[in-house]
Specification:
By secondary structure, the protein is mainly alpha-helical. The chain contains five helices and two strands; from the N terminus they run H-H-E-E-H-H-H. The termini are far apart. This is DNA-binding transcriptional MerR regulator.
């Protein structure tokens, strides 16, 4: 491959990372990724480091980090090692929020599992609406 053609095209990068070309361009405009190298035809060429960075950004996005915080993290990253402590604090705060969400989700899942258990029990017993407090009726809406 000629030096001018080295790297991944937008389409190849999209395939490698699982995001659309539109998202890649948005990330560049939003300053989440640094301006990408271009070939003589002015086409973007992404490096393997770009692939890993976009994959990390996707993890941040998929775990609910707002774009503004992603942008802050990206800006800190661009400043190099002097911002390591600030990046660490930002990621620790995000991780703490994730842990709270996970705890809440586990609680919700437990409540749903209990409701499912009650419904399964109802299906194996004769109908007796007086003991079915979790079943919706026309006169009463129980959970």
């Amino acid at each position: 491959m000629a030096e001018d053609e080295a790297g991944l095209t937008v389409a190849q990068m999209a395939e490698a990372t699982g995001v659309t070309a539109h998202t890649l361009r948005f990330y560049e405009r939003a300053e989440l990724i640094r301006p990408v190298a271009r070939n003589s035809g002015n086409q973007r060429r992404y490096s393997s480091a770009d692939v890993e960075w976009v994959r990390f950004l996707l993890r941040l996005r998929e775990t609910g980090m707002p774009i503004s915080q992603m942008r802050e993290y990206a800006a800190l990253r661009e400043q190099g090692p002097v911002t390591t402590e600030a990046r660490l604090r930002l990621l620790q705060a995000h991780q703490a929020g994730l842990r709270e969400q996970i705890t809440l989700l586990r609680s919700h899942e437990k409540a749903l599992a209990e409701k499912i258990r009650l419904y399964r029990n109802d299906l194996t017993r004769p109908a007796d609406t007086s003991t079915r407090r979790h079943v919706d009726t026309s006169t009463e809406r129980n959970h």
